[in-house]
């Protein structure tokens, strides 16, 4: 599956939004990939996650014990990707801002692959890795549907992206005037 195919699916779902967005990292962007508008369609989600599962199987050597999705955005793609990988899917969710594995137990040494929706700075994946390593799990790879950094982000483990799509993002104090003129909205769930 090519990047253009992935973007066609996002566009067909009305998931490529234009405006002024506050990202989870605090960066600002004129473009937001509202993945929820894709994941509301099981058929579109299946196509994307089956392709991602195939890419994960091709790149990860050895067993995978769990797929782990960072809530909320990672829940649906992690579940659907795990269905194709035929391994269980679990998730981390924020407890007072910090990712925790609140509902599951995981064996020490378990080999896990993180499945995210979108990667911008990789911050959310690094936070997920920290949580899982504290529990003794081995994070063998991370994966995502779209990497907005187009391969520039280093999360400390191999990052398997179904598509790479570079989108501008700016520190809040370095906004171009056309972006500063638009009221900012924050679609994600961090700090809620
Ligand atoms: O690579 P990063 O800079 O961390 O950005 C990507 C993260 O941002 C979004 O999550 P967000 O915290 O906005 O909440 P959501 O999962 O509820 O959408 C997205 O789901 C990724 O988890
Ligand atoms: O960086 C983010 O927070 C982010 C960007 C994006 O395009 N979509 C998303 O859900 N989160
Ligand atoms: Mg998220």
UniProtKB/TrEMBL annotation:
* Annotated residues for binding of 5-phospho-alpha-D-ribose 1-diphosphate: 116-124
Q: Where is the Phosphoribosyltransferase domain?
A: 46-153
Q: Which GO terms describe its molecular function?
A: orotate phosphoribosyltransferase activity
Q: In which pathway does it act?
A: Pyrimidine metabolism; UMP biosynthesis via de novo pathway; UMP from orotate: step 1/2
- Pfam families assigned to the protein according to its UniProt record, in alphabetical order: Pribosyltran
Q: What is its EC number?
A: 2.4.2.10
Q: Which SUPFAM superfamilies match?
A: PRTase-like
Its required cofactor(s), as named, are: Mg(2+)
Alphabetical keyword list: Glycosyltransferase, Magnesium, Pyrimidine biosynthesis, Transferase
Output the Gene3D superfamilies linked to this UniProt entry: 3.40.50.2020
Extract the InterPro entries matched here: OPRT (IPR023031), Orotate_PRibTrfase_bac (IPR006273), PRTase-like (IPR029057), PRTase_dom (IPR000836)
The UniProt catalytic activity note for this protein reads: orotidine 5'-phosphate + diphosphate = orotate + 5-phospho-alpha-D-ribose 1-diphosphate
Q: Where does orotate bind?
A: 120, 148
At the top level, the lineage of the source is Bacteria
Q: How does it assemble?
A: Homodimer.
Would you identify the family this protein belongs to, as annotated? Belongs to the purine/pyrimidine phosphoribosyltransferase family. PyrE subfamily.
Q: What does this protein do?
A: Catalyzes the transfer of a ribosyl phosphate group from 5-phosphoribose 1-diphosphate to orotate, leading to the formation of orotidine monophosphate (OMP).
Protein known as: Orotate phosphoribosyltransferase
Q: Which organism is it from?
A: Aminobacter niigataensis
Q: Which gene encodes it?
A: pyrE
